[in-house]
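TASK: fixed-backbone design
INPUT:
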């Protein structure tokens, strides 16, 4: 495929983040396949301007309205349109000028723009897992109703998705999500109690944004991913299993009804699932380093330590109970991680904060979208009140 007409026009929501930047690398290496039409950032105006000058999209959106003039002036001599504010994100998501959204905003903030894109019939390359954790039922219903494919970018879900290609008629017995275990694998609470932000941000296998790095250290990331998997692949909670695999070579597995197992493997590099989602159903050749089976290396597997990493137990509870509980948990977690990153609470306090919020906010078995927003706000307020944010 070459030439203008065959280019897929991409909108990157969250282009200044870890996923957004890697997606732009993929696009830059495959400019005959993709063009960039929309870029958005929350507050990093400098990087957004730099990206806009390099990729000349149709439109950029800066979330922080106080940075609008700065971006506008920097792009004055280009044809790039500049919007600002939260509402502008939704407007941009509804525009005709693009073919696929890469949903790479972090957290609950990604929900509304992604919903707008689905309503507009746009295929989604989904990195933002919180969207499915909070309102997976509504997102999946809308996606099916609008015939919108959701292609996962999260490496575990991309792995499962890849294992399922060609298996539409075959039933899944279970999926096995692999977890690296994060930087504190094997540690106990007496160690974790003293852990500080900078240590928790050091992931052994992946370089990621701050929030997901902390989620990986607490294992909340794997909890969020269990719920994400349930919605993406229409699974019962008991069909989602987690195994710790510290080398991060097997990205996840599917066990079929006949006991046969498929795994998707590769070196840990998010550019691979990103480019798979952008180009699906094609695979794009590249020169990324390959895993070499001839070198001496060992792949190991163990059970997660649920007693130490209690966030994973809380997430399992939310997965099984459903309703607005995952939404409440997610909101409390966002507040907890934010507070930890600002050295306001300790590593283990995050779990207590989430647990207390899950106990406090009223359970709703079948919430509508408005109730998800209310539960999110209530959970945030309660969690913040516990730490006087
Ligand atoms: P990041 O913090 O590096 O980047 C987040 C992006 O979202 C930035 O562009 C930022 O400007 C934007 N943003 C943040 N808050 C916003 C708001 N309130 N409104 C509008 N935009 C906002 O995050 P990341 O690591 O790139 O992760 C993005 C998403 O992808 C997360 O949901 C994460 O769980 C998921 N994910 C990331 C990785 C990874 O390797 N980084 C892997 C799997 C899944
Ligand atoms: Mg993941």
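OUTPUT:
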């Amino acid at each position: 495929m070459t030439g203008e007409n065959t280019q897929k026009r991409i909108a990157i929501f969250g282009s200044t983040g870890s996923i957004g930047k890697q997606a732009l690398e993929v696009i830059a290496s495959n400019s005959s396949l993709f063009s960039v039409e929309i870029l958005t950032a929350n507050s990093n105006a400098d990087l957004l301007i730099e990206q806009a000058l390099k990729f000349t999209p149709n439109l950029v959106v800066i979330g922080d309205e106080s940075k609008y003039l700065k971006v506008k002036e920097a792009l004055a001599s280009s044809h790039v349109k500049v919007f600002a504010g939260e509402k502008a994100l939704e407007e941009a998501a509804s525009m005709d000028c693009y073919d696929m959204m890469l949903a790479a905003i972090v957290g609950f903030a990604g929900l509304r723009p992604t919903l707008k894109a689905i309503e507009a019939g746009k295929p989604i390359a989904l990195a933002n897992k919180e969207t499915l954790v909070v309102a997976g039922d509504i997102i999946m219903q809308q996606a099916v109703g609008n015939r919108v494919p959701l292609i996962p970018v999260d490496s575990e879900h991309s792995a499962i998705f890849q294992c399922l290609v060609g298996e539409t008629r075959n039933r899944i017995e279970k999926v096995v999500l692999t977890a690296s275990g994060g930087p504190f694998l094997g540690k106990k609470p007496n160690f974790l109690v003293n852990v500080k932000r900078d240590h928790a941000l050091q992931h052994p296998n992946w370089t990621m944004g701050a929030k997901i790095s902390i989620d990986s250290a607490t294992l909340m990331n794997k909890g969020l991913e269990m719920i994400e998997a349930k919605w993406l692949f229409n699974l019962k909670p008991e069909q989602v299993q987690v195994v710790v695999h510290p080398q991060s070579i097997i990205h996840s597995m599917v066990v079929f009804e006949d006991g046969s197992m498929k795994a998707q493997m590769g070196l840990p590099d998010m550019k691979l699932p990103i480019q798979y989602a952008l180009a699906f159903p094609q695979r794009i050749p590249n020169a990324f380093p390959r895993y070499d089976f001839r070198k001496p290396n060992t792949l190991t597997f163990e059970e997660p330590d649920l007693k130490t990493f209690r966030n994973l137990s809380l997430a399992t509870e939310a997965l099984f109970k459903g309703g607005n509980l995952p939404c409440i948990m997610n909101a409390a977690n966002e507040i907890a991680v934010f507070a930890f990153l600002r050295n306001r609470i300790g590593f283990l306090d995050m779990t207590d904060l989430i647990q207390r919020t899950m106990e406090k906010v009223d359970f709703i078995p079948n919430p509508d979208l408005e109730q998800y927003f209310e539960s999110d706000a209530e959970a945030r307020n309660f969690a913040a009140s516990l730490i006087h944010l």
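COMMENT: The chain has a mean pLDDT of 96.
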